[in-house]
Amino acid sequence: MKKSTIAASVIFLMTAASTFAQDAPKTLFNAPKLKNISVIINPEYQNGQLSNNFTSFKGLSASVVFNNTFSLGLFSTSVLNPNYVLNTVTSDAANARYGGLKLEYTLKPNSVIHFTFPLYIGTGTAQATQNFGRGGNRSANSFFVAQTGFQVEANLFKFVKLYTGSTYRFSDLINASSTNPLSSSTLYGLSFDVGLKFGVFGKTYKK
After folding, report:
1. Burial bucket for residue 134 (CB in 10 Å: 0-12, 13-18, 19+)
2. CA 54 to CA 132: how far, in whole Å?
3. Cα Rg, the chain, nearest whole Å
């Protein structure tokens, strides 16, 4: 009697487990399986418009790359050689800096030559210095910034990638300076970019 009771209990538990397993919820979208993960450092040079004039920018970002295709990270970009001294007050920005979130999608990353599509979203400042030098009144104006475009990328080595391309920067004024306000289109403009990515690409992810 006892053996038959135990056997019946085991059969019941196995049947219940099978039923519960079959009742797993179905979803409209399935998240892609994580196969590999990488961490990259990305120095960048941009020749982009600032107050409608092309200016050199330097940039640096750090990102985590999932499955070699989608990356999520942080970035910082600023004028390469800011001009902190102006003899006259103008409506043009002498320097700017901005930073925030960087997203990027890579198409066919295992090909030697492939395309990437970056998106930069963040905030920053732009100012026209008024004859006070580096420590003086920089008349900061704060902006929202979004920048996107496309780039052509080459796998140089397993740990180095080189890219070049073009992006366009959109901006909106958040807070204007009380002494020297700048136009909301100050940071608008085209940019030509070149940079390197350093990292251990395609690192196998293990749980």
Report:
1. exposed
2. 24
3. 26
This prediction's pTM? 0.77
Residues 160, 19 contacting (CB under 8 angstroms): no
What span, in angstroms and rounded, lies between the C-alpha atoms of 75 and 167?
15
* Domains (range + CATH), the chain: 36-199 (2.40.160.20)
Q: Scanning the structure block, which residue is given the tokens 């599509």?
A: 117
Alpha-carbon distance of 56 to 91, in angstroms, equals 19
Q: Residue with structure tokens 């496309």?
A: 150
Residue appearing with tokens 């001294």: 85
Residues of the chain whose pLDDT is less than 70? Answer: 1-32, 84-90, 129-139, 202-207
- 13 exposure class (CB count in 10 Å sphere: 0-12, 13-18, 19+): exposed
